[in-house]
Amino acid sequence: MVRSTVFLVLAISAAACDNTSGNVASTKTGDTTHPAERGSPIDDLRAACGDGAPTVLGASAIKRQAYLQQVTSATATLGWVTTNPTGARVRLSAQGDTSSATVPGTVEDYAMRTADESQMWSALESLKPSTIYCYEVADDSEAMTVATGFRTAPDPASTAPVRFLAFGDSGGGGTDQYALLEQMYTVKYDLIIHTGDLAYDDGTIGQFEDTVFGVYGELLKNIPFFPAAGNHEYHTLNGAPFRDVFNLPGDSGEKWYSYDWGRVHFVALDTEADYATQAAWLDGDLAATAAPWKIVYLHKPPYSSGSHGSDSALRNALAPVLARHGVQLLLAGHDHNYERILPQNGTYYVVTGGGGVGTRSVGMSSFTAFAEDVIHFVYGEIGVDEMVLHAIDATGREFDSVVIPRS
Ligand SMILES: [Fe+2]
Q1: What spacing in Å lies between the alpha carbon of 276 and ligand 1's midpoint?
Q2: What is the mean pLDDT of residues 258-277?
C-alpha cells in the first residue's frame, strides 16, 4: 500500500513536472544541403559598446538585468527589475556618437512583484533604423551597468537579410536547456521569437526569473525578444505574470500582436485565447500589411504528429486566413519535438517544441515532411525571394533545412 502510494505520487509529479530530459543529438538527417552561416549573434553589438564581459551586477540594486522589448526601426523599450527605482534611467548613444540622451525609467506596479523590487520600463524613441545603440542603466546612486548594445530594426525598404531564432517549450533550467543555449551563441540573428511554454511548470514570476531571465538574460540584453504565451504560462492567474514581465505591442492586452522587422511582418497568437476572435483580427492585420514576408507563430500546432497532435479547431480557424493572405510560414510549439509539415495551400508549418524541457516521440502523418524528437531550435534567414529555415540540435548539428519561396 505504501509502495503503491509512493509510486502514484511519483507518477503524478512526473506528469505535472513535464520536465524530463530529451535527445540532444539528432539521429536522423533531413535536408542538410543549405547549411547556416555560423557566428556570434552578440559579439559585434558588445564590441561596438565596449562590453567585453557578461554584466557584473555586484552590489547593484538591479535584480533582473536589462532586456529588450518592442524594438522597431525607430523605437525600443528596455525593461529591468531593481530594488532602487529612485532616479532610474537609461543613458543611450548611437554607436560612435559622443553625445548621449538620458531617458527616465518608470515603475510598472503589479501584484506579483515582491514589495522591495520594482519592474522598470524605459521607452527609447527617435532612433535610426539598422543602427547599433549603446546603453547603460543607472539610478540615483549612479551605479551604472556595463554599457552594451542593440541594433534597431531595418527600414521596410531594406533588402538586407532578416535573421531570427525560434524555439518553444524551453524548460525548467535543466541540462538540455543549457546545452541548447550554448548553441544559440553560434548563429547570427536579429531577433528571438518563442512559440510558448517559457516558464515551467506554472508560469510564476519566480519561474520566469529562473528559467527565462536566468537562462537567456545574457542574450536578451542585446537581442529583442517577442514571445507567444503557452498553456503553462496560463497555470498562474491566466498568464498575468507573462504579461507583467514582458512589454508587448498591440491592444489585445499583451495576448496576440504583430510587428515588422524590415520586410517581414511577424504575428504572435495566443492559443489559450479564443480562436475565432484571433482569426478575425488576423484577417484584418494581414490585410493591412504591405510586407512581402509574413510569419505567424503560436503555441498549439494546427498540424502535428506529436503526442498532443493537431489542433483541428485551430487549423479550421486559421488555415483559410493564412492561405488568403499568402502567409509563408507558421511556427508552433507544444509538442516536444521538431516536425516540418508539407506545404498546405502555400503555407509551410513547422513544430519547434524542443527548446529544452525534454522530448517526446513523434510519429509520421500524411502531412509530415520530416520529424525528429530532439532538443533543437529553428534558425531562419530571410532574403528577398526566399527564406531558408535551419533546424539545429543541442550539439550544434544542423539536421534539417528547407527553402521557402516568397510566393
Ligand atoms: Fe504546451
Answers
A1: 20
A2: 98
How remote is the CA of residue 242 from the centroid of ligand 1, in Å? 14
- What is the C-alpha separation between 270 and 137, in angstroms, rounded? 32
Q: Is 115 exposed, middle or buried (0-12, 13-18, 19+ CB in 10 A)?
A: exposed
Residue 84 pLDDT > 50: yes
How close is the Cα of 72 to the center of ligand 1, in Å? 29
Give CA–CA dist 322/407, Å, rounded.
13
Distance from C-alpha of 343 to C-alpha of 405, rounded to nearest angstrom: 11
Q: Over pLDDT 90: what percentage of the chain?
A: 85
Handedness of CA 287, 189, 230, 209 (dihedral sign): negative
Distance from Cα 31 to the centre of ligand 1, integer Å: 27
Q: How far is the CA of 197 from the centre of ligand 1 (A)?
A: 5
For helices 275-287 and 312-324, give the axis angle rounded to 10 degrees: 10
Instruction: Quote the ligand 1 centre to 233 CA distance (angstroms).
Output: 9
Centroid of ligand 1 to alpha carbon of 356 (angstroms): 13
pLDDT tens per residue across span 384-405: 999 999 999 999 999 999 999 9
Give pLDDT, residue 112.
Answer: 62
Q: Judge if pTM exceeds 0.90.
A: yes
Contact call for residues 382 and 162 (beta carbons, < 8 A): yes
Ligand 1 centroid, distance to 14 Cα (angstroms): 15
Cα(335) to ligand 1 centroid in Å equals: 7
C-alpha cell at 119: 519592474
Yes or no: say if 247 and 255 are a contact pair by the CB < 8 Å rule.
no
The rounded radius of gyration (Å) of the Cα atoms in the chain is 21
Distance set, CA 218 to CA 46, 121, 176 (Å) = 11, 18, 18
Phi and psi, residue 282, nearest 5°? -60, -40
Per-residue pLDDT tens digits for 290-307 = 999 999 999 999 999 999
CB proximity list for 347: less than 8 A, separation 6 or greater: 319, 322, 323, 327, 328, 329, 330
Q: How many CB atoms lie within 10 A of CB 248?
A: 22
In whole angstroms, what separates CA 177 from the centre of its chain?
14
